[in-house]
Amino acid sequence: MRLTRAAACRSLVGCLVALTLTAPALAQPRPATVLDLAAQQKNLTTFVTAVHTAGLDDTLRAAGPITVYAPTDDAFARMPPAERDALMSDPARLKALLLGHVVNDMVLIHQGDSTITSGSVTTAAGRELSFGGDSDRPMIGGAHVVQADLRAGNGAITTVDKVMLQ
Is 5 part of a structural domain of the chain? Predict the structure, then answer.
């Protein structure tokens, strides 16, 4: 079979387009740490700022595995402004609160065809967080899951719609 010059160019262009569309997805490695991953999320800027303020950078960059239940920017925005401002200006209190969102183990909300909707985990602050809800709307510690099981090299992040206060 002989291809005309035009047909050969179309075939070549088609191959290049396919390669261009698939290669970046194949070449993108997982972020090295949950902190790197959080910093890449547009809805976790307040959380990342809080981590820096609390001095927890090394904790979220540790070897792991760790799981972080990260409140979204909207979750922080729903807090009363005076309470949020007081929290963000008190590194010790902020650290204690954020450690209540970190589990020193890999805990994925979705495992195969199942979703965790019962049981509990102990956080790095020693708090118990209970799972609830149902497979369509799982919950952890009274907060609804916004996005589950974002993977990094040292663990995972599940974003939640509420700052889980003690």
Answer: no
pLDDT of residue 98: 94
76, 70 Cβ separation under 8 angstroms: no
What is the percent of the chain where pLDDT is above 90?
Answer: 63
Quick check: is 16 in a domain?
A: no
Residue 22, classified by CB atoms within 10 Å of its CB into exposed (0-12), middle (13-18) or buried (19+), is exposed
For residues 36-42, average pLDDT: 93
Backbone angles phi, psi at 136, to 5 degrees: -85, -25
- Strand arrangement of the beta sheet that strand 137-140 belongs to: 102-103, 66-71, 155-160, 143-152, 137-140, 128-134, 120-122
pTM score = 0.80
Q: Find the domain containing 137 and state its range.
A: 30-160
- Specify if 113 maps to a domain: yes
Number of folded domains that form the chain: 1
